[in-house]
Write a structure and sequence with these properties.
heterodimer, A: 219 residues, alpha+beta, Glutaredoxin, four-stranded mixed sheet, globular, B: 41 residues, mainly beta, 0% helix, disordered N terminus, Thioredoxin-like_sf (chain A), DsbA family oxidoreductase (chain A), DSBA-like_thioredoxin_dom (chain A)
């Protein structure tokens, strides 16, 4: 007997570990013999970042974290190598550092239209691999249209900030859970998993949640 | 001077949204991103 396990994932579009964690979670879910329902939630790592940051990701991280440029370059080199190991080809030379709040609004728009998972994947790839801008409405609308969403309606919704309250609600829920970093996975409302863990960790948590859910149902 | 209670000032702190307790699983040192910069990139 199989029970669908809900997984809520807090994530930011410009978090390199979130894309890596997404791949590792997907690998873990593939090891799990059951149904998984995923919902992404908004987490803003740097809500004070300008839409058009004047500099590279190295400049940004160096300034923000107060680290020497050489140390930041090593960090990015390391995370780029780990991304390669899960099949993701990060291109930090083409990344546009930006504010992600409107991309989160787009993810909520996509959820309302049943396309959140596709939109999440498109946004992460756009940012880390394709060198696309994910902070401006027109650029985001182009990406939305690529997965089949109505471009004009996306521009309207993002301009009106129809989904900003949903973004802020996600952030408030993250605070309530005590989430301080992403990715953060909540498995069936019972287990929390922080960071880009190995697939086995996700698979085991899914099995454990399923077992408990079935036991509770049969009790 | 009025001795009526001050009903304009909340006496109970605003509570965060309710959620069930969750148990943390996995390694503590897995890669992640923090706004404050304390856990990786």
């Amino acid at each position: 007997m199989s029970e669908t396990i809900k997984v809520d994932i807090w994530s930011d579009v410009q978090c390199p570990w979130c894309y890596i964690g997404k791949r590792k979670f997907e690998a873990g879910a593939a090891l799990f013999d059951g149904n998984v329902e995923v919902e992404y939630h908004s987490f803003e790592l740097a809500p004070d970042t300008p839409v058009d940051f004047d500099g590279s990701p190295v400049d940004y991280l160096s300034q923000r974290k107060g680290l020497p440029v050489a140390e930041v370059e090593l960090m990015l080199e390391r995370v780029t190598g780990i991304a390669e190991n899960v099949g993701l080809h990060y291109d930090y030379d083409s990344v546009h550092q930006t504010n992600t709040v409107i991309s989160h609004e787009l993810l909520h728009y996509a959820k309302a239209h049943g396309r959140q998972l596709d939109m999440k994947e498109r946004l992460l790839k756009a940012y880390f691999v394709d060198g696309r801008h994910v902070g401006r409405i027109e650029d985001l609308a182009d990406l939305a249209a690529e997965i089949g969403l109505d471009r004009d309606d996306v521009v309207r919704a993002l301009t009106a900030h129809d989904f900003l309250p949903d973004v802020k609600a996600d952030v408030a829920q993250a605070n309530a859970y005590g989430i301080q970093g992403v990715p953060f996975f909540v498995i069936d409302g019972r287990y929390g998993i922080s960071g880009a863990q190995d697939p086995d960790t996700f698979a085991e948590a899914l099995r454990q949640a399923q077992t408990e859910k079935i036991e509770e149902k049969n009790a | 001077m009025s001795t009526a209670p001050d009903t304009t000032t909340p006496t109970v702190p605003v509570e965060a949204p309710a959620h069930p307790p969750i148990k943390l699983l996995g390694r503590a040192d897995a890669g992640g991103c923090c706004g404050g910069g304390s856990c990786g990139v």
